[in-house]
Design brief:
This protein is of the alpha+beta class. It has 7 helices and 20 strands. The protein has helices at 3-29, 93-149, 155-208, 361-369, 380-383, 437-442, 455-464; strands at 32-38, 40-63, 68-73, 80-81, 86-90, 211-213, 218-222, 230-231, 242-259, 271-276, 283-297, 315-323, 335-352, 357-360, 389-399, 402-409, 411-415, 419-424, 431-435, 448-451. The strands form 3 sheets. It has a 6-stranded mixed β-sheet. Strands 2-9-12-11-10-13 form a 6-stranded antiparallel beta barrel. The chain is rod-shaped. Residues 23-28 have low confidence and may be disordered.
Length: 465
């Protein structure tokens, strides 16, 4: 074979190789790189989060119940107090003097009662004497009546005895009236004593109001006054009317705000995990005890019903979580985050949330029949007017030597942090497209793809989603 023929043959081989390589490179350039994952089963928990602060279930502002200067403050902020414990005292010179004066009045009136009782006994003794004397006079007159009838005594003696009897009868009536008078005086004196005792109870109450006591076991959270300051009454929450704030820490709550899109899933008695910024690494178990019905403006916290201007800003709802355990380390006002478990499905079939797309099923079927393209007579603009999108995912399938995707409608259940429950449409082990996000936006059924689950590609897909 001549040298010229060999050169021609080599050139033909090089050209054919170039054509083949170019065809392969062109074919590979039309393959879309995607990230994938296989559907699996796992326990799925749906959680709603809210932020707020720790609050006691019960707290009171211990206000002034008397006007006067503070003489002693027995507690300070952070102290634990018991029910009935003395918290503070006000000056009590006038109430004490009033009580002492009334005690003297009561003693004097009790002495008067004793005097009236003695007079009553004397009057009763006089009545007894008058009864005996009248009886004696009755016997005399009866005897003289018989003697007078027998003409044994003169009429003068008889009249004298009769007069003596009448005097004794009148004396008895007089002394009986004196007894009634003495009893009335005694009753009046006793009434005065009762009245004075009742007045004294009011005096003791006024004196007791100069002493402030704890209404329940609790924690002193605020003491806005100092010894020597003057307290006033009748003006709630005004300066000088509140001695201190007392919180009942036996029942602790976390009052948090939950977004309006999530509050519909929050129900009473759902389990909650509460974390506090001041106690990193520690969590507290609780349960939902109150779900607010009033929307709150996110910027101001004012209820929408109290807002005077209309606004379309985001809104929150108040949710109260009661802790199930004692937490002595907690203090009112600490910032808290509540994670509310709204649903739990064991062994659920799950897929990443970013894999979900919205597509027109009829259009996807057309793409599938034409290897990811639309016939020129049925472009995207022609289908736009009659488009009806449904929720689904792209599933990876092998066709001969190619990997292609096809759209599969799915129905979903509860949503976790990054996963969502699949209730129908997929089976465990199915491989679905999860990214990248830009690719998913334009991906269609029948498109040739290539797996690219490298760390760089997966990270880029997560950041875009």
């Amino acid at each position: 074979m001549s040298k010229r023929k060999i050169l021609i043959l080599v050139a033909i081989v090089v050209v054919l190789a170039a054509v083949i390589v170019g065809s392969v490179m062109h074919s590979r350039s039309n393959v879309t790189k995607v990230t994938t994952t296989k559907i699996s089963r796992q326990d799925l928990v749906s959680v709603v989060s809210g932020t707020g602060q720790i609050k006691p279930k019960t707290y009171v502002n211990v206000g002034a119940t008397a006007f006067g200067r503070i003489t002693h403050l027995y507690v300070k902020e952070g102290d634990h107090v018991a029910a009935g414990q003395v918290l503070a005292t006000l000056e009590s010179v006038q109430p004490q003097a009033t009580v002492a004066a009334q005690n003297a009045t009561i003693s004097s009136q009790k002495t008067d009662v004793n005097s009236y009782l003695a007079a009553e006994k004397t009057a009763e003794a006089n009545v007894t004497q008058a009864v005996a004397d009248l009886q004696q006079k009755r016997f005399d007159i009866e005897r003289y009546e018989k003697l007078y009838d027998q003409k044994l005594v003169s009429k003068q003696d008889y009249d004298s005895r009769k007069a003596a009897y009448d005097v004794s009868a009148a004396t008895l009536q007089q002394r009986q009236a004196a007894v009634a008078q003495s009893k009335a005086q005694t009753a009046s004196a006793l009434g005065h004593v009762d009245q004075a005792v009742a007045s004294q109870r009011a005096n003791f109450d006024a004196l007791d109001k100069t002493i402030s006591r704890a209404p329940f076991n609790g924690l002193v959270t605020n003491v806005p006054v100092r010894e020597g300051e003057t307290m006033v009454t009748g003006i709630q929450n005004a300066q000088g009317s509140t001695l201190m704030t007392l919180a009942d820490m036996s029942v602790i709550t976390a009052e948090v705000k939950v977004d309006e899109t999530d509050v519909v899933n929050v129900k009473l008695n759902q389990q909650v995990e509460v974390t506090v910024d001041a106690l990193p690494g520690k969590s507290f178990k609780g349960h939902v005890t109150e779900v607010g019905d009033q929307a709150l403006l996110r910027t101001t916290g004012i209820a929408t019903s109290q807002s005077t201007t209309g606004t379309e800003e985001a809104k929150d709802f108040k949710v109260v979580v009661t802790l199930d355990e004692d937490a002595p380390a907690l203090r009112p006002g600490l910032s808290a985050t509540a994670k509310i478990t709204t649903a739990r499905v064991p062994n659920a079939l799950t897929l990443p949330i970013q894999a979900l797309v919205q597509r027109d099923q009829a259009l996807e079927d057309t793409y599938m029949k034409n290897s990811g393209k639309l016939p020129s007579s049925n472009g995207p603009s022609a289908a736009k007017g009659k488009s009806k999108t449904i929720q689904g995912v792209y599933v990876l399938t092998a066709q001969k030597n190619d990997l292609r995707v096809h759209f599969v409608p799915v129905t979903t259940g509860i949503t976790g942090a990054t996963e969502i429950e699949v209730t129908s449409g997929l089976n465990s082990g199915d491989e679905v497209i999860t990214g990248r996000f830009k690719i998913l936006r334009t991906l269609h059924s029948g498109t040739r793809v290539k797996r690219d689950n490298s760390i760089e590609s997966a990270t880029a897909a997560e950041s875009e989603s």
